[in-house]
Write a structure and sequence with these properties.
This protein is mainly beta. The chain has a single domain, classed as Thrombin, subunit H. The chain has one helix at about 60-75, and strands at about 35-40, 50-60, 95-100, 110-120, 125-135, 140.
């Protein structure tokens, strides 16, 4: 993304930070996440209808994720069964979480899952990127920052 003109960071305009350390996925089972992506509000495929969007999401537990996706992953005849390639071990891998809320759509792949976290250093809330959308068929999210 390119921004025309200049701006100054302020309380209202802040960068999205990356976390200081990787946390086990159990630390992410919570409300208050926001998906930031470049996608289509109406799930259409016309590139001229794409825009920067944000969607509130809740990160679900591994047990809930596996139960939600079981009808798709366990049924070879399901129209979305191809996502099994992205989830060979369902959500039992440490790097995978799933969310509930508005589903991801075309263009969300590569979007950021962020959460506001209180920073003792700065004495205020900061947006911190927690994960990256991995696949746009459903709400799979792949943590990646510390996976290299």
């Amino acid at each position: 993304m390119e921004i025309e003109g200049t701006f100054r960071f302020s309380i209202e305009i802040m960068p999205i930070c990356i976390p200081g350390k990787a946390l086990p996925k159990e630390n992410h089972f919570d409300k208050g996440y926001t998906l930031l992506s470049y996608g289509s509000e109406d799930d259409g495929y016309a590139w001229d209808s794409f825009a920067l969007i944000s969607k509130p999401l809740t990160v679900q537990t591994t047990k809930v994720c596996n139960a939600l996706y079981a009808p798709i992953l366990d049924n070879p005849d399901h129209e979305l069964h191809a996502i099994k390639q992205l989830l060979p071990n369902k959500f039992d891998e440490d790097s995978l979480i799933c969310t509930q809320g508005d589903p991801t759509c075309v263009g969300d792949n590569g979007g950021m899952l962020v959460k506001k976290v209180f920073s003792e250093e700065f004495g205020r809330q900061q947006a911190v990127q927690q994960a990256l959308v991995y696949g746009n068929v459903a709400s799979e999210v792949h943590t990646w920052i510390y996976s290299f």
